[in-house]
Design goal:
With 282 residues, this protein is an alpha+beta fold. Helix content is 32%, strand content 27%. The longest helix is centred in the middle third of the chain and has 21 residues, at 153-173.
């Protein structure tokens, strides 16, 4: 807000238009797309996008960023395997969906180990399994939830398609029936090299060249990706941890807190990048 106020005071001197977007629901990847659908990038039309995320992995006073793919896509899968319940002592009279689900989980891992090139990357993780009510009863169904992530649209689409093929085919081979449903989260986040170079220059000016780092490719996700699909841009990280003050807990820790000096760094880099992007091009 302070940066917005400072730049607003210089509005008459700015050779263009700046839009400050305050995105809600980032943690559930549910804020960017509704903003875009409401026209946040259309009136006026947005030509470049710059965004940031604080990082308690990095010490305060540092900035990290990278060209190209930076964060993975994120989709949620729900797999239901249905069989026929029965007594655990007489499995031949039932069709066991737990055994089938176990084979499905194992088979899904081949999507990463045998169907994704070693120079690419994908994640298929089953994080929730619900089945059964007693130790000696074979249930009728198993429900599983998991996450699917990739760095390119091609790997994302192929992995999602193959999950359904593997789940239904494996379950059918074991006399069960499987269905797969998805909740699509967000696409891969890809930084534009030209805009990233501008942000890198602004970061070097703000914190010094030695404090600007190359960000690691990370399989976490962020729906900032939707903004970067519609205009070239850069999403960067500002260090916010300070171990000497005990401010170095992870982002999802109950002890999470930041060194607020990071906010000053963030404002300097954002402001510097914005002014550079507004400069007339030859």
């Amino acid at each position: 807000m302070i940066l917005a106020e400072l730049l607003a005071r210089r509005r008459a001197d700015l050779p263009g238009t700046l839009i400050f977007a305050f995105q809600p629901a980032e943690e559930i990847a549910g804020g960017a797309l509704p903003m875009i659908e409401a026209g946040v990038m259309d009136d006026p039309r947005v030509d470049a996008v710059v965004g940031l995320h604080l990082s308690n992995v990095l010490p305060v006073g540092t900035v990290s960023l990278r060209d190209g793919p930076s964060l993975a896509s994120m989709d949620e899968m729900a797999v239901t395997v249905e069989g026929r319940g029965g007594h655990g002592a007489m499995p031949e009279r039932a069709v066991d969906p737990i055994v089938a689900a176990a084979h499905v989980i194992t088979a899904l891992q081949t999507l990463v180990s045998r169907e994704t090139s070693p120079v690419d990357a994908a994640v298929v993780t089953v994080g929730v399994i619900h089945a059964g009510t007693a130790f000696n009863i074979i249930p009728d169904r198993v429900e599983m939830l998991g996450t699917v992530r990739a760095f390119t649209p091609e790997v994302r689409d192929r992995t999602l398609r193959r999950i359904e093929e593997i789940a239904t085919g494996t379950a059918a081979a074991l006399r069960c029936h499987a269905t797969v449903a998805y909740r699509f989260g967000c696409p891969p986040l890809v930084n534009d090299p030209t805009v990233t170079a501008v942000v890198r220059d602004a970061a070097r000016q703000a914190v010094g060249p030695q404090q600007v780092r190359e960000a690691e490719l990370w399989t976490a996700s962020d729906d900032m990706a939707y903004f970067l699909e519609r205009a070239p841009g850069c999403y960067f990280y500002v260090g916010s941890s300070n171990a000497a003050r005990g401010l170095d807990a992870g982002h999802h820790s109950a002890r999470f807190d930041i060194d607020e000096d990071a906010l000053v760094v963030a404002a300097k880099v954002l402001g510097g990048a914005a002014l550079r992007l507004l400069e007339p091009r030859p």
